[in-house]
Design brief:
The strands form three sheets. A six-stranded mixed sheet has the order 1-3-5-6-7-8, sandwiched between helices. Strands 2-4 form a two-stranded parallel ribbon. The radius of gyration is 35 Å and the shape is rod-shaped. The chain is of the alpha+beta class and 238 residues long. The protein has four helices and ten strands.
């Protein structure tokens, strides 16, 4: 944080990514026993509270999605978070990143993804037969636990839900819904105008038909005044 408390562009970008990850993952697992949190302290062991981490995002399966002030593993049936996301900052050193990877490996995380929002790339580690195995490049890979797919290209890192929908921030999704609502409203107004035009045309046609009927009745009355039966004029000649 800057002295004037204005967030740096890096902090704002990582905050946006945290919101995007948490929002999309919570929606993906809505109604299920899956706990998703951001920057929540995780304590792996009760007898060593100095050992802890606060991942940018953690996901724990078979855990109730309720508020926690911390993730204390001994209170969670001994379950470590299954998936962890970290968002790399330009200030992170190789030593910082190596320490995080060792921590998540040591304490039983199944999948760990280190994403670089600035560089548009990522790297992962997935546990296989008890060992952390490197996943690189991350583009084209799908998380075994989450079903989320990663794509890299043109300096951008993009995540997709199992059904192929791109991860969005809440603001982006609200904007998309607002645009969809605007397009729907425009289509409704267009259909409404067409319907009104059709009603006006029908009304005009009805008016013309009534005028024609009135003119016919008036003519028939004139003919009767002259002693002519209008029906005789309509009968075919013998």
């Amino acid at each position: 944080m800057r002295p004037d408390r204005t967030p740096t562009p890096d902090a704002m970008l990582r905050a946006e990514w945290r919101m995007k990850l948490v929002g999309e993952l919570r929606e993906l697992f809505a109604g299920q026993r899956v706990f998703v949190a951001s920057e929540l302290f995780w304590y792996p062991t009760e007898d060593d509270l100095a050992t802890h981490r606060a991942p940018d995002v953690l996901i724990a399966f078979d855990r109730a999605p309720v508020f926690r002030d911390a993730y204390r593993q001994w209170e969670e049936d001994g379950l470590a978070p299954h998936v962890v996301f970290e968002l790399r900052s330009p200030n992170d050193t190789r030593a910082d990143m190596a320490e995080k990877q060792r921590f998540y490996d040591r304490y039983g995380v199944e999948e760990y993804y280190l994403l670089d929002p600035h560089g548009g790339s990522g790297i992962g580690w997935v546990r296989n037969e008890g060992r952390f195995e490197l996943v690189y490049p991350l583009g084209g890979y799908a998380s075994p636990r989450l079903g989320v797919r990663f794509e890299e290209g043109h300096g951008e890192l993009t995540l997709f839900t199992p059904d192929g929908r791109e991860f969005r921030t809440r603001e982006q999704r609200v904007g998309e819904m607002q645009e969809e609502l605007r397009q729907t409203t425009l289509a409704f107004e267009s259909e409404r105008e067409r319907a009104l035009n059709a009603l006006r045309w029908l009304s005009e046609e009805r008016g013309r038909a009534e005028e024609a009927r009135a003119a016919r009745d008036a003519l028939a009355a004139k003919l009767r005044e002259l002693g002519i039966d209008p029906d005789d004029l309509l009968r075919p000649a013998a």
